[in-house]
Amino acid sequence: MEQLHGASDLLLLPVLLLAVAVISVPLARLLRLSAIVAYLAAGIVIGPYGFGLIRAPETIVTVSELGVVLLLFLIGLELEFSRLLALRRAIFGLGAAQLVATAATLAGLAYALGLTGWRGALIGGFALAMSATAIALKILEEGGQLQQPYGQRAFAILLFQDMSVVPLLALLPLLAPGADSHAVEFGDTLFAVGRIVLCIAIVVVAGRYLLNPFLALLASTGAREVMTAAALLVVLGAAALMQFAGMSMALGAFLAGVMLAGSNYRHELEADIEPFRGLLLALFFMGVGMSIDMRVVMATLGLIIAAAIAITLLKAGIVAALFRATCPNRGDGVRAGSVLTAAGEFSFVLVLSGPRDDDW
């Protein structure tokens, strides 16, 4: 087959991706593996480090990240504001405890082993403490566990991690060599916080008072495609607004979903968004697989396996310990720990945004 360079062939590229998805998932099911594994493996095979059928996976990943955004919107539709308030202790208590405890443990271990200096250890600790939202939620959703008590607590941890990205990024300049308390201008920080608060307020007010009349007006036209367009506009508009504020796009979509959870059009919105969510999530995982350089993996396979085992056990153990202290069911801690072990997309953001010096 002729090689596909990025998105140059608008017909063969979607045909290839759809064919890979249709073939890989049934094979994974026969082997009793998750669909996520199938998509990752398929991405490796067709990516630049496999057969090279697709040379520019970054363009696919950028678009497919919308799958995570749509997934968070659908989760928000199932979670009314009153239920979100009921989770506030889990979000700010359990979520903060997991992030701090995991980051401190991993940073201390890296520094003690002499793998890096204290700055690098601290950045790496927080980066690896983050979990993969897309993977964790997909696993919980496939098992029907998202509405279970442990699934709700695991989701609370993921939500806190998303909210903590901006404060962590704001603190990174302070870790640069020679940085002091004046490294970050107070006015800039205050402006950034004000922008975040304003954007959240816009999403909340619009979702509570404007969207229902807007959707009722569109529904009166009787045009189904207009409602589908409106659903996508709501999700992507909220995501873009939060991205402008410097927050996660997924967080904006989630807030929009929560605001519409009590809407009369909730089920119609869910039906309109669901097909896009599934396809884009599959594309996201394939894009991640395409980005895996198997040459680097094979060259450092021993180190990768050892580090993966150590980090997985530490993260799972910390989550299990926290759950055991707050949840009567001991098995919930083990299940939540296994779901939250994978490092997330924000791990790369923190590492790439960290200071570049000999100590890091």
Description:
This protein is mainly α and 360 residues long. It folds into two domains: 1-57; 65-353, Na+/H+ antiporter like fold (Up-down Bundle). Helix content is 75%, strand content 0%. α1 (12-30) crosses α2, α7 runs antiparallel to α17 and α11 packs across α12. The longest helix is centred in the middle third of the chain and has 34 residues, at 186-219. The termini are far apart. Mean pLDDT is 80; it is low at 180-184.
CATH class of the largest domain: Mainly Alpha
Number of DSSP strand runs? 0
Q: CATH topology of the largest domain, anyone?
A: Na+/H+ antiporter like fold
Shape: globular
Number of contiguous helices:
17
Helix and strand topology:
Elements: H1 12-30, H2 35-46, H3 57-64, H4 66-77, H5 81-86, H6 88-112, H7 118-129, H8 133-142, H9 149-171, H10 186-219, H11 224-244, H12 249-259, H13 266-290, H14 294-299, H15 301-326, H16 330-339, H17 345-353
